[in-house]
Amino acid sequence: MKRRLVAGNWKMNGTNASMTELQQLAAAYPSASTDILICPPATLIARAADLTADSAIRIGAQDCHPAPSGAHTGDISAPMLADAGATAVIVGHSERRENHDESSALVAGKASAAHASGLTALICLGESLAEREAARTLDIIADQLAASVPDTATDADTVIAYEPIWAIGTGLTPSPAQIAEVHDFIRARLGGRFGPDAAGSFRLLYGGSVNPSNAAAIFAIPNVDGALVGGASLKASDFSPIINALE
Ligand code: PEP
Fold it and tell me: Active-site positions, per UniProt (predicted)?
């Protein structure tokens, strides 16, 4: 039975003072029946990993460079993240695709680098509002999925997060039918590429304005195996009810 996953993306938020939120989470979940991941900024990964070592919380990163080392000022490699205590890394978040012009080919390179360092890659896909309104959602998802997921990906090292760009940080969420349509589509595409058995084992997360009030309804949608949560992951009092909705 595949374990479901709630992942929190702190984005460019958090300082040492935020560790109290993480300590609260770690105390609340000494063990859990779901996987729980917090992705703080890179500056906090090592400390966060230490603080959560005896709990069910795992620590991830928000990005990595595709190369293991080299002349890439300001970048951080997957081996460095693993060395700091991360077990996973988000790649292809729409904010990176937009703000840093990241292509799906680059995202696939980052995912491969993550895998080579023993990290789970959380690969994000999602359409813009204009693309949805032009009825291009499934075409965009198909293209991003095909080009962002390496051929060598497995259900053990890769998680797919469907994050419609227009739902991120806006308070807007797609209808259950819209989420189901995309998640069913992703599952079917994975089946065509990796075989139906493996496709069934990949975890598919929904992300975009998940909060304590809508989490249970989102988790009840078929083919939703958890969530990638931004704003509502910053405070333990918001994130815990989302975890509990999945437990
Ligand atoms: C995200 O940034 O991945 C995200 C889903 O953000 P939010 O939950 O704030 O919409």
Answer: 93, 163
